[in-house]
């Protein structure tokens, strides 16, 4: 029964971890501008994240080393300084966009401009990190994020053309705005497989004290949780097709997303959508701040644990404090949150090789994984993701210039 509860909570956490500012915004833009034709990018990002989380979780529970620590030990600090710097820089940008998403959700409810909410949101997030434990933070925000199921309910009530939905899972060449189309495709993939997700997940395996008996739990959690999260991101795209596209509405601001569900669910739809944006972005804010602290602490050999009292692991606590304060600054200055989100998702996609390629090597290291290292199918999957990450590295910046708006 306890193991089933772990799986159930892991699935719920997967939904909250997947559906945040980047996934919601990019999926809504894709549906409004290109109909169902970018559903394949959501599916590709979902499958890739399942593979990466399962492997980073398996690495952690077999070797009892989180991903960042394993990369540093295997490749040395001279190499790891590259993923460390890139990971921290990109994560801070993503953290700012998530914090901005929370502030915008509060603005939609109160009417007070979002920039005034940046510091209060950061303070609440910091207080929970300072006082909370890993399990309570992760599962508490995830359970609240179940309000996102309203998006799937709205998608069904709007009666989409399921044949067209299915056709959207097959990549097709766009007929117009090709640079913008491919930029959104890259951003969707970047939003789905942000490196902070597997740094956070592998550290969570250690925090939760998983061992070899959790191998199946890890597989099920990674697969089902992120499948449900990906399905909800797909539902965002479907709703955008049916609500925004017929009216010729382009998503230029996250505030527009507040009314997405009202044609199907009325006033309740507004409450649910604002709640989904606010809660999921807040959960991501906490996770990314922790991921920054995990990454730096593991790189420099500091003691780390969210379950310890802050004074026991002071450098770890200072790191997530600094991260969340730095992320609040651009939001307090009134930066365009949607543009920041798109930019950070694209950079996330471009940064993938520095973590995916080392993970490919680690998953075949018999000293770390013994008999649990990758087989041919696992190597085929992560090899394909590694090739994709190299392609994204090459094309992302040109697409940002040509189609990023």
TrEMBL record:
GO biological process, one term: iron ion transmembrane transport
Protein keywords: Membrane, Symport, Transmembrane, Transmembrane helix, Transport
GO MF terms held by the record: cadmium ion transmembrane transporter activity; manganese ion transmembrane transporter activity; symporter activity
Topological category with respect to the lipid bilayer: Multi-pass membrane protein
Gene Ontology cellular-component annotations: plasma membrane
Keyword match Transmembrane helix: yes
Listed Pfam families: Nramp
Subcellular localization(s) per the UniProt record: Membrane
Ranges that cross the membrane: 37-55, 76-94, 114-130, 142-159, 179-201, 222-244, 264-297, 318-337, 343-364, 376-401
NCBIfam families: Nramp_1
Name the UniProt record assigns to this protein: Natural resistance-associated macrophage protein
Organism, as annotated: Gemmatirosa kalamazoonensis
């Amino acid at each position: 029964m306890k193991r089933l509860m772990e799986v159930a909570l892991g699935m719920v956490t997967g939904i909250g971890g997947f559906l945040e500012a980047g996934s919601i915004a990019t999926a809504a833009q894709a549906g409004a501008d290109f109909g169902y034709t970018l559903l394949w990018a959501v599916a590709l990002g979902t499958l890739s994240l399942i593979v990466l989380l399962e492997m980073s979780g398996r690495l952690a529970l077999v070797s009892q080393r989180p991903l960042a620590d394993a990369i540093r030990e295997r490749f040395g600090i001279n190499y790891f300084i590259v993923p460390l710097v890139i990971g921290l820089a990109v994560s801070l940008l993503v953290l700012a966009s998530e914090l901005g998403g929370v502030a915008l959700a509060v603005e939609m409810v109160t009417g007070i401009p979002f920039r005034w909410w940046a510091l209060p949101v950061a303070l609440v997030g910091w207080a929970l990190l300072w006082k909370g434990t890993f399990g309570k933070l992760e599962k508490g925000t995830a359970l609240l994020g179940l309000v996102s199921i309203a998006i799937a309910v709205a998608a069904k009530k709007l009666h989409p053309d399921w044949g067209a939905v299915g056709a959207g899972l097959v990549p097709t060449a766009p007929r117009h705005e090709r640079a913008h189309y491919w930029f959104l495709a890259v951003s969707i993939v970047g939003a789905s497989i942000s490196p902070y997700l597997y740094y956070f997940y592998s550290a969570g395996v250690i925090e939760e004290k998983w061992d070899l008996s959790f191998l199946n739990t890890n597989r099920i959690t990674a697969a089902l949780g992120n499948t449900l999260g990906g399905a909800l991101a797909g539902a965002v795209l479907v709703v955008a097709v049916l609500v925004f596209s017929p009216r010729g509405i382009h998503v230029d601001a996250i505030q527009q997303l507040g009314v997405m569900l009202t044609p199907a669910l009325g006033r309740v739809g507004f409450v649910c959508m604002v709640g989904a944006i606010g809660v999921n972005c807040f959960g991501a804010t906490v996770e990314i701040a922790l991921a920054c602290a995990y990454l730096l602490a593991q790189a420099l050999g500091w003691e780390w644990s969210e379950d310890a009292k802050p004074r026991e692991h002071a450098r770890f606590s200072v790191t997530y404090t600094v991260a969340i304060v730095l992320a609040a600054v651009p939001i307090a200055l009134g930066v365009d949150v949607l543009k920041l989100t798109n930019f950070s998702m694209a950079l996330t996609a471009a940064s993938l090789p520095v973590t995916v390629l080392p993970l490919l090597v680690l998953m075949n290291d018999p000293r770390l994984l013994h008999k649990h290292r990758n087989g041919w199918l696992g190597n085929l999957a992560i090899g394909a993701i590694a090739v994709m990450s190299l392609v994204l590295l090459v094309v992302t910046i040109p697409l940002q210039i040509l189609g990023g708006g």
